[in-house]
Known about the structure:
The protein is of the alpha/beta class. The chain has two domains: 1-53, no CATH class; 54-283, 2-enoyl-CoA Hydratase, Chain A, domain 1 (Alpha-Beta Complex), CATH 3.90.226. 42% of the residues lie in helices and 17% in strands. It has helices at residues 2-17, 20-23, 36-41, 57-64, 91-102, 136-152, 170-174, 176-189, 204-207, 230-237, 248-253, 266-283, and strands spanning 24-26, 33-35, 71-72, 108-115, 118-125, 156-162, 194-203, 216-219, 225-226, 259-260. The radius of gyration is 21 Å and the shape is globular.
Amino acid sequence: MNWLNSVRNALPFVAKRETTDTLWHKCKGCGQMVFTKELAENGHVCPRCDHHERIGPPERFAMLLDEGSCHILPAPKVAEDPLRFRDSKRYSDRLKAARSENSEVDALVNAKGTIDGHPVILGVQDFAFMGGSMGLAVGEAFVRGVENAIRDHCPYIIFTASGGARMQEGILSLMQMPRTTVAIQMLHDAGLPYIVVLTDPTSGGVMAAYAMLGDVQIAEPKATLAFTGRRVIESTIREKLPEDFQTSEYYLEHGLIDMVVHRRDLKKRLATVIGYLTHARKAA
């Protein structure tokens, strides 16, 4: 049976290239199967129903920053597991698992580059890293991103994707809300634009802090945007909420954001906004 074992040992390599996970992707919008390659070529937007899939920092940087201009900024060092928190697992173990799965230090990554020739510092939150939750590392990365933007005298753009504050860091995570607010004020004092792009989902403490403080508020189509959950609100006010409640389109209709932009148009739109804001502030 040695020959059979040899064949079996060879099979995983062949099968790995042809699994459903690598060749196909089930759209979360329409439920249809889409070729993974076709989805990636379409900006991770379903070619059938236009559903915007969640993507992380590498994809964002590749789509938005001019070729050859992207330089990832080093992640700041912060105290890890400051409360020695443990639930069903140690917080330190959860961090290790998240890092091994995502190859990132934490949920917010900053990069320096240009968008159609405009210098920017671009921050991207990754929902795949512990739900994009905001803790010490995310707060410090945000502040460092702002400091780099001030030093380079360019806009700071943040792509938000978060379930809120990181519960394993308790009050320390909530303290990142005023910290990031002060950082935004520093950016304004320097006369530099702060642009927010809300992606699916953005909620909780992030929504209550830097996600809604942009000079310009942009959102991707049909993104879920909320401070607290729909069921919590309905049970509190004892009313049924509209079907499109807490979506990008609802926020736009009610004047809470400035525009909803399709992913394929984001780079061009950001370049236009940056051009307007930097020109206006230079003139002032």
